[in-house]
Known about the structure:
By secondary structure, the protein is of the alpha+beta class. It has 3 domains: 1-65, no CATH class; 67-107 and 266-308; 118-264, Adenine-n6-DNA-methyltransferase TaqI, Chain A, domain 2, CATH 3.90.220.20. It contains 11 helices and 12 strands. It has a 4-stranded antiparallel β-sheet. A hairpin with a 2-residue loop joins strand 4 and strand 5.
Amino acid sequence: MYFENKEKAIFASYLIRIRFPKNKVLPKYYWSFSQTEKYWEQARKLVTGGGQPQFNGNILKQISFPLPPLEIQHQIVDEIAAYQRIIDGARQVVEGWKTDIDIDLTELPPDGADQWDYASIGDICKVKGGKRLPKGETYAKDRTNHPYIRVVDLIGGSVNTNNLRYIAEGTFKQVKNYTISSEDVYISIAGTIGLLGTVPDELSEANLTENAAKLILQKDKIDKDFLKYVGMSDFVQQQIKKLTHAVGVPKLALERIRTIQIPLPPLEVQRKIVAHIERERAIVEGNRELIQIYKEKIKKVIERVWES
């Protein structure tokens, strides 16, 4: 299992020094329980050192945990290990997958060229920046009709709505010209630079931070999802890296966005490529869900022993 927070990482150096009576405790069994919240509720009360947690053998000896017979411990360890193997395999899929724009060269253009044409973003899109909140204005305390999308909300080619901010009507009137449509593609230009994606329909016409820009597409030339995915590719990301102005605070200027080159097959081919990527993405998301399911299974195995 991996450490999920700082205090558990600190604890790792002490775990390896514990010696267990071979006829009473399996080290892997103890390790499993050292990752539970009930175990750490005890550890937090016993830890010393203030800002830098300190553990020692005397503290560890005071932490209690369920101790079934060795045979049961073996069963628990084996069950958790089986679930962990599934988690590890699924995580390899999730972490290893990346957008791969693979133009199908068997569908060559009519002139027999060996590759599709390329175009700069400025040739097929209008590039417009977002807008910071006016001086003296802040986010609304309550939800309003005007969501304000920040770079921190841009994730996975879409928008994470879990911690979305909103602005009041008076603030919106001052920045009403800086919204993004669900038909546009966003690109982050400061902070985390080079994130591309689209906003869901329910956030269409939301306000956009000054740390991102919107790409207004020529729909007869480029599919929004194709642009989103090609923007995630190494081919485009390497261009973004080179174009990012690194004097002072790194930022990707709007005029530089317009120079980014992308492959531009016909719309029909673009949509085929998007469909292929979406099928792959669905498999990846399935593996992401599988990780959560089996984490819960491990949690239930351990809780079952605590409750017995």
